[in-house]
Design brief:
Keywords: Cell membrane, Lipoprotein, Membrane, Palmitate, Signal. By secondary structure, this protein is α/β, with parallel strands linked by helices. The protein is about 40% helix and about 10% strand. It is globular, with a radius of gyration of 24 Å.
């Protein structure tokens, strides 16, 4: 990650023992021009722009659209602080994901926001096509001219630089880059108090999971021993599929791009899931349930295990302990093929997965203001704000180190630390280099989860953020739209028992008929070009 930020392990949950000496000097006064001064040493025209300091003069106003927010989002303290420090007023708009039809309608309308926050790797034809079609700006010269903080970050971190441009070197968005720890944030969750009562260990293999779930059903009378949404079947995470050495989607095996749904092991995984469903171990409604239903089943005792995100652990413990003080949700490791073995797959994102990256629309009237507002996040001061919030409100500096205040640690309204920081910082899903904030939690199980879920061999299989050419991306989209629908249909039919796992071979053939082998050729070529960047 960014070279100017060094992380240390936190030994106490409240005090953050982070090596931030290089950051602190420029973070105590947001109005100091010496703290914020940014001078570009060189640009593509070999010119040296005039010195710039925040806040920007001129009362610039911009509109900002976030893919993750529907409707008109509430203005938070972090938004007000950003405006004060940057001098740029932002009108926050609701948004829509790149894959939603509403996004196409937005482009067609011509009424574009100044800044788009979205997953530009998913744009039809790829980000190069979005630039070519005139919807967003190519940023190379603009970064040289107005974004010294991002430019320095990329110079100091060539691995990040490689990720966020296309094969021809085009920069198309200000990226959200996850920290090393932030790349893993989900996995199996289980009720440890039930295991203790039943004298069972935390399961490590598929056979042990079968034993545990059977006990949950028969001895704890759980109506849905394990519950999860379909997104966790084997695509977003390795889930239970990782124990079979496979997962959904594209990944890499020994330098070759493969598509997990084609592999023989995926059929065996589906056969096992079908048997579990027949035995009543998997939630009978998993094909249609939403997140709120999963939450209710987990916190009420209807289920004893799930696959989900890290913050679920704190949420489930808080809810369940209101009626059962002994409830104890903890992370379980991704299952391995054999006890003591390393699972091939878990959940792991690239540092740059393409999500929450900010492009600037071609209709923006104040391009400099848009660049300056985004570039602030990559400054030392901007990173402190995005990570720890507002000094004197959410943290104080003690001996040069940030220590959270009672607003975060012992919130008077009973809010969890993560809920407070959602109001005062950008901990995730914002164009920036994410830093680890090591938030305190009353549930140590939450912090322990990541170390448990990280123990997989997933890194060796991870396909980097490749960028097929515009023509290749169009062809890929045409092929994969039908194949994605087909694999989801096959999964559900087999797990629900409507079709035998033996029939999965016909779906493999249908994928080939639909062009999956051509899609693999495109991905392989893009992967090899990426390695040469």
């Amino acid at each position: 990650m960014a070279k100017w930020f060094n992380k240390k392990t936190v030994s106490k949950p409240v005090i953050l023992l982070l090596s931030l000496t290089m950051l602190v000097a420029g973070c105590s006064n947001s109005n100091s021009s010496s703290n914020n001064e940014s001078v570009v040493n060189s640009n593509s025209n070999n010119q040296t722009p005039a010195a710039f300091s925040y806040p920007m003069q001129g009362n610039a106003e911009l509109s900002f659209m976030n893919e993750q927010l529907g409707g008109t989002p509430e203005v938070m303290p972090i938004d007000e602080e950003y405006e004060k420090r940057t001098g740029i007023s932002i009108k926050h708009l609701g948004g829509t994901p790149m894959t939603d039809q509403k996004f196409s309608l937005l482009l067609a309308s011509g009424e574009l926001p100044d800044i788009f926050l979205n997953t530009w790797l998913q744009y039809p034809g790829g980000p190069d096509r979005a630039v070519e079609q005139g919807y967003i700006l190519k940023l190379n010269d603009l970064i040289d001219q107005y974004a010294p903080n991002l430019k320095k970050t990329l110079q100091d971190n060539p691995d990040i630089d490689k990720m966020i441009k296309t094969d021809d070197g085009t920069y198309y968005a200000f990226p959200f880059i996850r920290s090393d720890a932030g790349r893993v944030y989900g996995g199996p969750i289980i009720r440890k108090d039930w295991l203790d009562e039943l004298k069972l260990d935390i399961p490590q293999t598929i056979d042990e999971w079968h034993t545990v779930l059977t006990a949950f059903k028969e001895k704890k009378k759980a109506s849905s021993p394990v519950t999860f949404r379909t997104m966790f079947l084997g695509e977003r995470t390795g889930g239970f599929a990782g124990a079979f050495g496979v997962m959904g989607n594209f990944y890499v095996n020994d330098g070759k791009v493969v598509y997990g749904y084609l592999e023989l092991e995926y059929k065996e995984y589906l056969r096992t899931m079908s048997q579990w469903y027949k035995e009543g171990l998997i939630d009978k409604d998993f094909a249609s349930i939403d997140a709120a239903t999963v939450d209710k089943k987990m916190s009420s005792g209807g289920s004893g295990a799930t696959i989900g995100w890290q913050f679920y652990i704190e949420k489930y413990n808080a809810a369940a302990q209101e009626t059962d003080p002994n409830a104890n949700f903890v992370a379980a490791p991704y299952p391995a093929a054999v006890k003591g073995g390393l699972p091939e797959f878990g959940q792991l994102d690239n540092a740059y997965a393409g999500t929450s990256s900010a492009a600037i629309s071609s209709t923006t009237k104040n391009v400099e203001a848009a660049i300056r507002w985004l570039d602030y996040a990559y400054s030392q001061e901007g990173s402190m704000l995005n990570t720890f919030g507002v000094e004197g409100v959410t943290y104080n500096l003690e001996n040069g180190k940030p220590v959270y205040t009672d607003l975060v640690v012992n919130n008077p309204e009973g809010l969890g630390s993560d809920q407070v920081m959602l109001q005062y910082s950008h901990g995730t899903n914002f164009p920036m280099i994410q830093q680890d904030n090591n938030l305190p939690s009353k549930y140590p199980q939450t912090a322990e989860a990541l170390g448990i879920w990280q123990k997989t061999n997933h890194e060796s299989h991870l396909l980097p953020p490749v960028t097929p050419t515009a023509e290749e991306a169009d062809e890929m989209s045409s092929i994969m739209n039908d194949i994605n629908a087909l694999v989801k249909e096959a999964e559900l039919k087999i797990i629900l028992g409507n079709e035998s796992a033996d029939n999965y071979d016909k779906y493999v053939q249908q994928m080939k008929d639909l062009g999956i082998e051509r899609a693999l050729e495109i991905q392989q070529a893009a992967y090899e070009r990426y390695l040469k960047r």
